[in-house]
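agent: user wants the structure for Zinc finger MYM-type protein 1 from Camponotus floridanus. delegating to structure tool.
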Amino acid sequence: KQFGEERRRLKNDIFFRSMKNGERNERFWLVFSPSTQKLFCVACKLFNSDQHLQFVACKLFNSDQHLQFVTGFNDWKNIHARVQNHENSIEHRKSMVTLLARLNPNIGINKQIINQVENETKYWREILRRVVAVIKFLCERGLSFRGDEEQFGSAKNGNFLGLLELLAQFDPFLKAHIEKNKNKGKGNVSYLSKIICDEFIQLMGQRVKKVITEEIKSAKYFSLIVDSTPDVSHVDQLSIVIRYCYEGKVYERLLGFLPITSHTGISLYESVSEFLNKADLDLKNCRGQSYDNASNMSGKFEGLQAHIKRACDKAFYVPCAGHSLNLVGVHTVESCLEAINFFGFLQKLYVFFSSSPRKWNIFKEFLNAGDSMQKVVLKSLISTRWSCHAESCKSLLKNYDSIIGALNEIANNDTEPANSVREAQSLLDKIMKKETSLMTVIWSKILERINATNFEEEAGSLSDKIGQDFSDVRRRKIIKKNSDKSVEPELLSGHKKFEVNTFFVVIDRLVTEMTKRISAYKFLNSIFGFITNSKIEGEELRQKLMKIFQIYEDDLDDDLLMEWMQFSSFVENNFLNCGLSASPHKILHFLFENNLGQVFPNILIIYRLYLTIPVTNCSSERSFSKLSLIKNRLRSSLGEEKLNALLLLSIE
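agent: tool returned. relaying tokens verbatim.
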């Protein structure tokens, strides 16, 4: 309210009464009306017995200040004195006593109604507790809810109603509710219908997503992990996983799936950007991104990572280490014909024995009779999962003699079909070759990342039935150049041919591919390498700190160097005698657990930035497993909102 050149405002402290002993009592009876811009006393407005007569007297003689809080008070200059006089008046106290008596649930004509409302509320809360528990149980396990019928007592009513019936057998309260409300159809409140069930799934999914987004916003920095896969209804689903550090721990959380129609880099960027905006997440706080090696994702110019990098230049791209390692194996296998034939032979072995139970039983008999303590059955090869190649090689390595025995048994059995005998003999001839045993050992060692010094010696120990000489068929003819520039033809022996055409080719391609893939991580190591390398010190350390400060100048203060020196000394003396050689995860947890972010704020930011950057997109791949479990051929018509809610509840 304007008083000359002064402007007075209604302050919040007027709604509290300060006592001399320091206590503050709320004046709940005092309310402000925005429409009239005045204060009112609720008690006097409702229960002032002489309100009309006092109102007339106030208008005629302007003598009753008490009635101002009935008609409305706005004299802000004298507000404190007027409010104090009013609350100490006899009329106000009488009105307050009447109001409090009316508010007392144990007094008055509405006592029974209040008790009835409380009992009804308690009853339905108990019902909802049981319903929500069943929904959580089914969501966590990715199970379906409805069956062919929506009737209690039917064996085809699905998991939701079936579990409620099961609980009712041991819960008289739920049993009575079901008996009272079952199969009544629409228009009857029971909280057991599919509509209520779907509504709870949506609400619970929204709540989980809200908690995750609040954690991400609290953490500030986050990274993107994105991948796509077609679902059972042939819809391309884009999985969006966020990696962030929260309260000293690193999390990778699924935020949801997006249906997409285009796989171009710009289209994926628009979809991801719109999704983050709806989740109220600022792309400017993105500090990393990791995808597979597909060009639409990892392309330097038009891939998704390039578009996100333009929107946030600190969102460094890291190719998925799992996919990169898989590509190393794939390209190494494709380097020579012998390697391709070897893995083709492994797949033929699996197909041959698994084609009929009788063949598989013969294989299992020889496997159980073998000397190997570790029984590993044959595995099928899957192109997208390189670990299957390792398992298949391991099975052949451990059971070489048993497989030979099983093939011999089938090849020499007159009761076997001619095709089976012929195929068994062909596989037997292949497995008996020296080259096959060598390839088994070589690839087992490569895939298990174990350095072997003598492959040939171990290859001979797989079975005493293996040929001891290399196949000299089709000897390779090469031209040998002498020092005097003369040339002469030379024929390679079987041993030399395998060494030149297969072993050296595989090893060279393996080294080349590993070097090529590792180069993608050098930039990240040049920024954060000093965190995990405690030997870096002096001028080199100063340059590393200057580099990270220049890159993250909007996130770090310029006193980083001094703070790091003090922090390294502090950690050496206080952190389990491990110092900076401890894992970054442990140091981050140590900083949060001891509230050291107040002392070393820049160090805390560096560790959060470092651990926020992902190196694989395995979380997206794992979310695909849940997607195929929840949206299967029997639930192919699930809507996107319900699908995302079920996925969040199942994963989280």
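agent: one observation worth passing along. The chain has five domains: 2-103, 111-192, 203-318+615-651, 320-522, 533-612.
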